[in-house]
């Protein structure tokens, strides 16, 4: 029997507040295609569409101009600011950029605890993923969904989940987030840092990995908003064999994770 997840109904009635953490290869590909979802929501009768904030403390480097949507004239400027200004001018939007790195305190106090409905993590380190996870799973957090995108040289994944917080704690059927399904992704060992050489950077990663993951994740989110339900919560793509494997919603896995969490709490 196929299990489906139904969207949080309030997201169909109010402006959808989205935070994108990371404006590099995957984050920029995800962001630059979001206006199409924003317009589709309007066509489907959504009252307000998307309100997007992008957070990234990095400045554009010469290497970034090889594989990310930046030119030499952008070098030295903040990635998030450049991309958001570009979208706002082209599409007539009023989206926001924050030119600093995300920490778990970004969703704490000052009215931020319930300021985002969807957090999208497009980060290239496990430390950054741990910060996002810690923020969205705090007891006072009101985040509905956490969408994580990550990749290595030739493959990657996207995983949608409902963080265990004040918004979702009463939902026994919630989608588990990436750290619950794949705890090794939050391990202490870090992946190698991006190369400072443009040639080495190209050789270190297959072309279009970021774009493929971003478009696939957007396709899933779009179906969730269009039909109000989805039968999968993510996917895995491998550039070497061209395969995309969906992450099917598995009730038995959900029960196993719940039992394991209960044992940890009792210990």
What keywords describe this structure?
about 270 residues; alpha/beta; Rossmann fold; eight-stranded mixed sheet; about 35% helix; about 20% strand
How would you characterize the overall build of this protein?
- This protein is about 35% helix and about 20% strand.
- It is an alpha/beta fold and about 270 residues long.
- It has a single domain (about 5-265), classed as NAD(P)-binding Rossmann-like Domain (Rossmann fold).
- The strands form 2 sheets. It has an 8-stranded mixed beta sheet with strand order 4-3-2-5-6-7-9-10, sandwiched between helices. A two-stranded antiparallel sheet has the order 1-8.
- α1 (about 25-45) runs parallel beside α3 (about 80-90) and α1 (about 25-45) runs parallel beside α7 (about 210-225).
- The longest helix is centred in the first third of the chain and has 19 residues, at about 25-45.
- Residues about 195-200 have low confidence and may be disordered.
Mean pLDDT: 88
What is the N-to-C succession of helices and strands?
EEHEHHEEHEEHHHEEEH
**What share of the residues lie within helices?**
25-40%
Overall shape: it is: globular
Largest sheet: 8 strands, mixed
Return Rg in Å. Answer: 18 Å
Please state roughly what percent of the residues sit in beta strands, choosing from under 5%, 5-15%, 15-25%, 25-35%, 35-45% or over 45%.
Answer: 15-25%
The counted number of beta strands is 10
CATH architectural label: 3-Layer(aba) Sandwich
Low-pLDDT stretches = 193-200
CATH C-level class is Alpha Beta
Determine the structural class based on helices, strands and strand pairing: alpha/beta
Strand order of the largest sheet: 4-3-2-5-6-7-9-10
CATH homolog superfamily? NAD(P)-binding Rossmann-like Domain
């Amino acid at each position: 029997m196929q299990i489906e997840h139904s969207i949080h109904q309030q997201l169909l009635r109010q402006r959808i507040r989205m935070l994108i953490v990371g404006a590099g290869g995957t984050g920029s590909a995800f962001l630059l295609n979001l206006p199409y979802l924003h317009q589709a929501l309007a066509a489907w009768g959504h009252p307000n569409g998307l309100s997007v904030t992008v957070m990234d403390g990095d400045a554009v480097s010469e290497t970034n101009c090889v594989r990310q949507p930046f030119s030499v004239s952008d070098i030295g400027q903040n990635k998030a600011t450049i991309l958001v200004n570009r979208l706002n001018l082209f599409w007539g939007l009023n989206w926001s950029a924050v030119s600093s790195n995300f920490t778990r305190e970004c969703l704490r106090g000052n009215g931020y605890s319930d300021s985002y409905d969807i957090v999208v993590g497009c980060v290239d380190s496990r430390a950054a993923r741990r910060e996002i996870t810690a923020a969205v799973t705090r007891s006072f957090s009101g985040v509905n969904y956490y969408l994580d995108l990550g990749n290595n040289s030739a493959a990657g994944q996207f995983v949608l989940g409902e963080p265990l917080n004040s918004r979702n704690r009463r939902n026994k059927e919630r989608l588990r987030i990436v750290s619950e399904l794949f705890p090794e992704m939050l391990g202490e060992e870090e992946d190698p840092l991006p190369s400072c050489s443009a040639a080495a950077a190209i050789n270190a990663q297959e072309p279009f990995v970021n774009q493929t993951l971003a478009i696939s994740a957007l396709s899933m989110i779009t179906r969730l908003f269009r039909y109000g339900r989805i039968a999968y919560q993510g996917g895995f793509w491998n550039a070497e064999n061209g395969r995309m494997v969906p992450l099917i919603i598995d009730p038995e896995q959900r029960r196993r994770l719940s039992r394991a969490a209960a044992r940890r709490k009792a210990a």
